[in-house]
Structure formats: C-alpha cells, structure tokens
C-alpha cells in the first residue's frame, strides 16, 4: 500500500488549491515518531488562505477523512498522520509478497542510459581508484533498471594515447619479450616507471614517446603490433577481476575505437569555426564559459583524450539514443567533462545537456594519493584475495561444516569490499585500511549478508511454509520499525536513482538489518500461535528486501554463511 499517495489524496480532498503532486512532494516523515508517521506542513497555504499555519492545520484536521488512520492531529503548523500499525504492516507485507519485483517502478519508460564506467588504462594495473568507478557504475546500472530504464554499460578502456608511445619507447630501449610474457602488467609498469624517472633528466625521451604514439595513430605496423599485444595481455588480467566481481559490460569500445571517428569531429569543429590555433596546437576557446581551452589536436597532428571523448559522446548518441549519458569518473576530471559538454554545446548538440559526469571521491592510503608513477598503488586483485581469505577464516570459525564454503567465502569476501566502497557517499574521500574494509561486524556488507542468512535459516526451520496473505497483522510494537522500513523501499530505490547515489541503498540495508535484528532479539518468531503466519511473512519480506538491496549494489546474498 502506498500510504504517502493515500495521504496526499486525503489531503487533496480538503485542499483544492494544491495539486496532488505538490502535496505528495511536501509530505514528510517526522524524525521523531511521536510526531506521527507522516506529516504535512501548511506554511505554503498561509498566503492564499490569509491565515496562520497553525489555524490552517486545525481546520484541515476538522475537515479531513480520518478512516484508515489511527489518528490525524494538528501539531503547530503540521497535520500529523498516525498509521494503524497492524493494518499498515499487513498491507505492506501483502504488497511485498504479491509482487515479483517489489521496489521496482517504471518511471524510466525504458529509456536508454549509457554508463561509462571502470575504464582502466591498458598496461597499468587496475588500482583501487578504478574499483570505485566499476562498482558505482555497476550499481547505478542496476538502480537505473529498477527505475524502469535500460542501462548500457560501456568500458571506455584507456587503450590509446601518448602513454602508449612512451611505453613502446621504453620497451624498445629496455624491454624483453620473455620478461613481459612472464608477468605482463607488472613488467610494463616497471618500464613505464623507469621511463618517467629517466625522462626527468633526459627530456628527449618524451619526444621519442610522442613520436611512437604518432606512428601508432598513423597505422605503423610495428607500433600497432606492440599496442595490440600490450592490450591483449592487460585485458586478460582485467577480465579476471570482472569475473571475480561478477560484473559484465555491454561494450569494451575504448579510446582506440574512436581513432577513425575523430576526423569527422575535427572537420565539424572547423566548419563551425570553433577551432583556433594556440602555440601550434588546435584548441576550442571556452573563455566565455569560464573554462580553460579544450585541446583538440597537438602540433604534430596527434589527437587527445578530449578528442576521443567528443567522438565517443557523438557515437553514443547516434548508436544508443540515450536519454541520459553518465560518466562515472573521479572528481579530478571534473573540468575535463565540463569542457567536453561545453564543446558539444558549441557544436550545436542540444543533447549535451543530458550528459552527466558522476564524480566520486579519492581513495588515499595513509593520507597520500595513489598513482602508478609514484609506485604507490594498492592492487584490487590483492585486496580481494585478502578479503576472501579473511572471510574463509570467519566461516571456518563460525560454521565449519557449511556446504559450498569456497563459494560463500568468495561472495562474502568480495561483497565486503564492494559494500564498503558503496556505503560511503560517492563524493566523500576515504582513507583505505584493509582491516576496516573486511571487518565482519558493524556497518559492513557481511553484517547485512549475515542478517539475511539468519532470516533464511528461520524459514528453513519453519519448513518453507505456504503463507496466507489474508492474515498478516502482527500485534507487536517491536516489529513496527522493520515494517516501516520495508514499506519505504520504493522511495529508497527512487531516491538512489535521483541522487545517483548507491550509498542510499547501502545505508538503508544496514538500517533494515539492524531493525530486524533488534526485533528478532526481543521477540520469538517460531512459536505456534495465530500470528506465526504473519511473522514468517515478515521474515520472508525482510529477506527479499535485503537480498534485493544487496543485488542493487552488486553484492551476493548467500542463503547460508
Ligand atoms: N581511462 C581513464 C582514467 O583512468 C578514465 C576514462 C573515463 N571515461 C571517459 N570517457 N573519459 O583516468
């Protein structure tokens, strides 16, 4: 039952000056439950009615239909609604159990949402920095789907650019094929780090690197062969990680894919007189937007990250006809995306307004930035392996006879890392401490998983009963909070999408797990009485919503752990 809607309709009947949608948007959930379950503020009627809000609230209460509510009363300028708990709980449980997709809505009307996510750079390890883009993007895709959109997950691999020229030049100088084959990414990183160190005293190295990249762009055979070999080896390693996380993509069109699509962009820019020369390079002036110039083409004709992103944006619009195009990329690239949108706008593409950079905060280690060049990197691969090890130890201790121990340890270990990342607000920075990520108590993914496994175990003990959906009232104050949380799941799914914020779901799942555990600690569930059916329905509903919340985050919910 959607109580908020019902309340809005009830109010609308006595407040003709406002439409339903406005009323709905004004209804609040008071922080303090003693102020009611929902409240409607009357301030915005004061002008029209030329009356004090307090008086308006009193008038509304005297006119409003109160059946279906435990109480409706005016407190100051608010009309407070108290729900009938038993009725509300029963309605809520019936709704969850009757639907196959409780929490989902069709707001998106099947519109396409492209999501640029993960997008690691070839020949570099996928670091914790890319984990955030991967898991936030994946979760946003699931949340978009739950809101009725069709997400398209695009891995815009960093497989093109001057850095490949540098790598080739490094490889030609110091590289050995056997060494690369034995340990590809680490070896390539080693060359790359050495290149940067030596270039500090020999700046001509940078020119050599640029020349190699130019060769690559011009289709030189040797350059192309090296490039595709580096790419292949790197992708193999990335795929292992994606498999570990059980994350897939609809497209791996990386930067190189746009190599033959950039001339058209440059031509259009020229036609529209947007390109100007600046120190030999071709740029778009964005001073009127308060932005730095966007570099489109270097003196030697080589293209840039920006050029490829412009081609990619246009390709995505033509190919996917998106209603929104999201880019889940760290906050340090904010200006890049502002420039990209501004250039597209100048080119006359009105749809550039539908492009959204979804920035996220930085992960630091002991307060310091991570970077491949400095060698200060945490490898996602290692973090996941350590986390799975810790999960295995926990299971060995708590549930040594568990079947599928390895599978569950994997689900719990990787789930811990993913959940930890997503429960932090997207824009916040956080310092990474392995022990915290893989903690199994407190605000963690494993706590939510464990709560769900507990619910599942109750249902197993009850022998997976057939539930009677006409008998769902529970006469127990302790269950109120849990029922209200279950009922708010629809709102949570909408809010998570509106704010592009998976942490809304993660925090919600922690609240629901806590509320249910509190109820479970104080009330007996498996007692043969006339409310057993309703209590088992509650456990079923809680497990459903916890499982679905975790799924929206990209975290598995094992039935036993
Ligand atoms: N490869 C880039 C990096 O690691 C991220 C690419 C983001 N996507 C994009 N379309 N620019 O910084």
TrEMBL record:
Residues 448-561 form the DALR anticodon binding domain. It is found in: Cytoplasm. GO terms for molecular function: arginine-tRNA ligase activity; ATP binding. It is an enzyme of class 6 (ligase). A motif ('HIGH' region) lies at residues 120-130. GO terms for cellular component: cytoplasm. It catalyses: tRNA(Arg) + L-arginine + ATP = L-arginyl-tRNA(Arg) + AMP + diphosphate. Keywords: Aminoacyl-tRNA synthetase, ATP-binding, Cytoplasm, Ligase, Nucleotide-binding, Protein biosynthesis. Coiled coil: none annotated. One of its GO terms (biological process) is arginyl-tRNA aminoacylation. Residues 1-83 form the Arginyl tRNA synthetase N-terminal domain. Its EC number is 6.1.1.19. Belongs to the class-I aminoacyl-tRNA synthetase family. Monomer. This is Arginine--tRNA ligase. The lineage of its organism: Bacteria, Bacillati, Bacillota, Bacilli, Lactobacillales. The gene is argS.
């Amino acid at each position: 039952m959607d109580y908020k809607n019902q309340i809005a309709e009830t109010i609308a009947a006595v407040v003709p000056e406002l439409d339903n949608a406005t009323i709905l948007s004004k209804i609040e959930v008071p922080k303090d439950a003693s102020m009611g379950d929902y409240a409607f503020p009357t301030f915005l009627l004061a002008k029209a009615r030329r009356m004090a809000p307090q008086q308006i609230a009193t008038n509304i209460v005297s006119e409003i239909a109160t059946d279906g509510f435990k109480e409706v009363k005016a407190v100051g300028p608010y009309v407070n609604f108290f729900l009938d708990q038993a009725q509300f709980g029963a309605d809520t449980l019936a709704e969850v159990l009757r639907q196959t997709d409780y929490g989902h809505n069709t707001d998106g009307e099947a519109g396409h949402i492209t999501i640029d996510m993960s997008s690691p750079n070839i020949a570099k390890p996928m670091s914790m920095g890319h984990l955030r883009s991967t898991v936030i993007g994946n979760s946003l895709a699931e949340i978009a789907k739950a809101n009725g959109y069709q997400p398209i997950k695009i891995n815009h691999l960093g497989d093109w650019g001057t850095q490949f020229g540098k790598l080739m030049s490094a490889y030609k100088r110091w590289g050995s094929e056997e060494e690369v084959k034995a340990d590809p990414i680490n070896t390539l990183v080693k060359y790359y780090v050495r290149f940067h160190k030596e270039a500090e005293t020999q700046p001509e190295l940078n020119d050599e690197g640029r020349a190699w990249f130019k060769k690559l762009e011009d289709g030189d055979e040797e350059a192309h062969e090296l490039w595709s070999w580096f790419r292949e080896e790197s992708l193999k390693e990335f795929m292992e990680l994606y498999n570990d996380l059980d994350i897939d993509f609809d497209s791996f069109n990386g930067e190189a894919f746009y190599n033959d699509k950039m001339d058209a962009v440059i031509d259009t820019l020229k036609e529209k007189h947007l390109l100007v020369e600046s120190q030999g390079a071709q740029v778009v002036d964005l001073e009127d937007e308060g932005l730095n110039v966007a570099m489109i083409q270097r003196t030697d004709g080589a293209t840039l990250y920006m050029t490829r992103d412009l081609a990619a944006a246009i390709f995505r619009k033509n190919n996917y006809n998106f209603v929104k195009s999201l880019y889940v990329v760290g906050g340090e690239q904010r200006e890049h995306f502002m420039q990209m949108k501004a250039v597209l706008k100048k080119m006359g593409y009105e749809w550039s307004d539908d492009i959204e950079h979804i920035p996220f905060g930085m992960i630091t280690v002991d307060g310091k930035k991570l970077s491949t060049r400095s060698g200060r990197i945490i490898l996602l691969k290692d973090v996941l392996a350590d986390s799975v090890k810790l999960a295995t130890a926990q299971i060995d201790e708590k549930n040594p006879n568990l079947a599928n121990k390895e599978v569950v340890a994997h689900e719990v270990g990787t789930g811990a890392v993913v959940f930890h990342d997503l429960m932090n607000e997207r824009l916040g920075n956080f310092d990474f401490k392995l022990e915290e990520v893989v903690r199994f108590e407190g605000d963690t993914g494993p706590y939510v998983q464990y709560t769900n496994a507990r619910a599942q175990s109750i249902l197993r003990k009850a022998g997976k009963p057939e539930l009677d959906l006409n008998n769902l009232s529970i006469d127990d104050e302790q269950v109120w909070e849990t029922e209200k949380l279950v009922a708010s799941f629809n709102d949570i799914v909408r809010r998570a999408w509106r704010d592009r914020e998976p942490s809304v779901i993660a925090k919600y799942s922690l609240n629901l797990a806590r509320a249910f555990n509190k109820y479970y600690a104080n009330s007996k569930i498996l007692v043969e009485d006339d409310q057993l059916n309703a209590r088992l329905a509650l456990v079923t509903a809680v497990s459903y919503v916890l499982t679905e919340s975790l799924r929206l985050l990209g975290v598995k919910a094992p039935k036993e752990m």
